[in-house]
Each structure stands twice: as structure tokens, then as C-alpha cells.
TrEMBL record:
Segments of this protein annotated with the region Disordered: 1-50
Pfam families: Transposase_24
This protein's name: Uncharacterized protein
InterPro entries (alphabetical): Probable_transposase_24
Bias kind Acidic residues: ranges: 1-20, 27-48
Source species of the chain: Deinandra increscens subsp. villosa
Length: 346
């Protein structure tokens, strides 16, 4: 099922007249990020799609949707939708130069501007696509061109990186839809009057007709069948990571900062996989994860010592967890990175 609507005619430059996005000046906290395997996923998750560390000088506007919370109930602090209204306004008013981005050897965004860039991508995909389409591949090329133009307006990024960025945007779109489903639809299935309204925090970027179609789709047999398959797949995600939204890129930067690896090191997949599943105290989330991590470490030691012989392309992670499927390389990232990693690790 495809959800369509009128295309947005702007370049995702929002006015500060919208008061609902100007009620908080807060920096995002990286530690509040979703620690599930979807980062976002990918992406990276890319449906992971949405919390960041910001410099003190960078001001984001956020809102918290308390529409469905009873007035008598204690209000917990919640993270709202990140918008970059004031940042864009300052950028254009001051005639700032485009923010440079840095990429690692595998083409993944890193550096000091990574948090802002990630928030920016989440913002433009929510506003530029939102709920009009259920699949990224259904989004018209014209809309994708607008989003790419908006990215290049504020950030220095070469044209050849467009494909990887488009993949990331697709993941962020999935995250947005999942967030709408889990936070605004499923909790209110017994409240039809609530589902008749677009959630307050999204009313300036989601049209009523798009919201109604999306709600109807999430209650259809087609959706239930797809959801069942998704749940079965998710049930196999036994070894959730603790890297947050930044994924392996952010993890590698932290390892370099902590001098656990050198800046030009190419750590093994097994090493990165294990590091991505420990908390600040160096502990694994569950005994099961620890057991798998120990098996991986033991196999890597044997391979390095020559007591176990493996074919090219096979490592400790492959021996313990099996071959990769679905275009994602454990400890590295998406399929676009696999060939680069193989060359880099020679």
C-alpha cells in the first residue's frame, strides 16, 4: 500500500513563527539514545533515527507531546522531536560557511558535526516525506533531489556520497514510521477519538489525510501480516548492542579518544562487535551475550595463533555467529561498506 500526498514545495527551511517548536533550548544527550540493534537500523537505522549530542553553542528546539497524558499523572521528562529551526535561521542570517563533514575509510560520517548532521537528516526526512509513502523506493526522485539539495546547502559533502546518504535517509524514514506506530497508534487503539487527530508535535509536518491513511493501514490485514514477519525477525536479535545511535562510527571514535586503538588502526570485526556490547563499566548486558563474546574472543585468539585455519573472508565472528545475511556486516555496517572493509583490512 502506498500513501501519497501533495509534495512539499519548500526546501525544508522552516519559519520560527511556529511556536510549538520554540519552547525548549536543549542539547540532545547521546546517552538517551536508543540502544536497540536498529540504528538506526542501521541504521543506522536508520530508524533509529533520532537523538544526538550537541555542542553547547548549538541550539535545537524540541517539543514533548503530552496530549495523551492525564493531567493528574506525574510528568516524566521526555525527549521531543528535534528540529533545527534556530540553527538554520542563524546559519542563513550570519551567512555561515557550510559545515564540513568527515568520513572514515569506510565512508561513514564521523567527526564533531556528525550529531548535527544526523539530526538534520532526521528532520528533513520527517518533513519532506513523513507519512506520504510507506516505502523509501516509492518516494519520487524530485523529493529526494530536494532533500539532497538541502543537505548540500548546509554541509560540505561530495556528490559521490549521495547514494550512501539516501540509504541512510530511507532508514530514518522507517524509524519515523515505527515511532509513530509505537508511541502514537498502538497505545491509543482503544481511543478512536485520539487516533482521529494528528499527534500535536507533528501537526505542522504531517497532513491529516496522510495520518488517517497511515492509521488505517496499520490496522489492516496487510500490515498485520508484515508486522508478524518483522516480529519473528526481531526475535532473532539476541545480542543487542549498547552503542546508541552513533553505531560503530561513534564507537570507533571513542576507542581512539580513549587510546584503545590508534587513529589509523583497522580493528577486527570481532573486536568491534564485543566492544559494541559492553556498558561503561565494561560489562555485557546479559550472560548470553557474554558467553557469545567469550567464544568470539577465543576463536579470534586461535585464528591469530594459527591453531585454527579459516578461508579468506571468514573470521571469528563468522565461526560463532554464522555467515552474513541481509546485506549487513556485523561489526561494520551496511552492504555498501562490505567491499571497502575487505580492502581496508588486507
Amino acid at each position: 500500500m502506498e500513501i501519497e500526498g501533495e509534495a512539499y514545495d519548500n526546501e525544508y527551511n522552516y519559519s520560527e513563527d511556529d511556536e510549538m517548536y520554540n519552547n525548549a533550548d536543549q542539547s540532545d544527550n547521546e546517552e538517551e539514545m536508543d540502544n536497540n540493534t536498529d540504528d538506526d537500523s542501521g541504521e543506522e537505522d536508520m530508524e533509529n533515527i533520532d537523538a544526538q549530542v550537541e555542542n553547547d553553542a548549538q541550539v535545537d528546539t524540541q517539543v514533548v507531546d503530552n496530549e495523551n497524558v492525564e493531567a493528574s499523572a506525574p510528568q516524566a521528562n521526555k525527549r521531543g522531536m528535534t528540529r533545527l529551526v534556530q540553527w538554520r535561521a542563524r546559519f542563513e542570517k550570519n551567512g555561515e560557511e557550510k559545515w564540513p563533514l568527515t568520513f572514515d575509510a569506510l565512508g561513514r560520517v564521523g567527526g564533531v558535526h556528525r550529531p548535527k548532521f544526523s539530526s538534520f537528516m532526521g528532520d528533513i526526512v520527517r518533513a519532506g516525506v513523513g507519512l506520504r509513502y510507506l516505502e523509501w523506493r516509492k518516494v519520487p526522485i524530485e523529493d529526494k533531489n530536494k532533500m539532497w539539495a538541502a543537505i548540500q546547502k548546509y554541509f560540505k559533502i561530495e556528490d559521490f556520497r549521495r547514494r550512501a546518504i539516501m540509504v541512510r535517509l530511507g532508514g530514518l524514514l522507517r524509524s519515523f514510521r515505527r515511532n509513530m506506530l509505537e508511541k502514537h497508534i498502538r497505545p491509543n487503539l482503544a481511543k478512536p477519538t485520539v487516533l482521529e487527530k494528528v499527534p500535536k508535535m507533528y501537526r505542522t509536518i504531517v497532513k491529516k489525510e496522510d495520518w488517517d491513511r497511515f492509521v488505517a493501514y496499520t490496522r489492516s490485514e496487510e500490515f498485520e501480516a508484515a508486522s508478524k514477519i518483522g516480529k519473528e525477525v526481531r526475535a532473532n536479535y539476541t545480542y543487542d548492542h549498547s552503542m546508541g545511535r552513533g553505531g560503530y562510527v561513534f564507537l570507533r571514535e571513542k576507542l581512539v579518544q580513549n587510546k584503545e586503538i590508534a587513529a589509523d588502526d583497522c580493528p577486527s570485526r570481532a573486536f568491534m562487535w564485543r566492544k559494541g556490547r559492553v556498558n561503561k563499566e565494561g560489562e555485557y548486558k546479559t550472560p548470553v551475550v557474554k558467553g557469545i563474546a567469550d567464544d568470539i574472543a577465543e576463536n579470534e585468539t586461535k585464528i591469530n595463533a594459527g591453531s585454527v585455519t579459516v578461508e579468506p573472508g571468514t573470521d571469528a565472528l563468522t565461526l560463532v555467529l554464522g555467515k552474513e545475511r541481509g546485506g549487513y556486516l556485523k561489526g561494520i555496517g551496511m552492504r555498501e561498506l562490505i567491499s571497502l572493509w575487505r580492502l581496508w583490512s588486507l
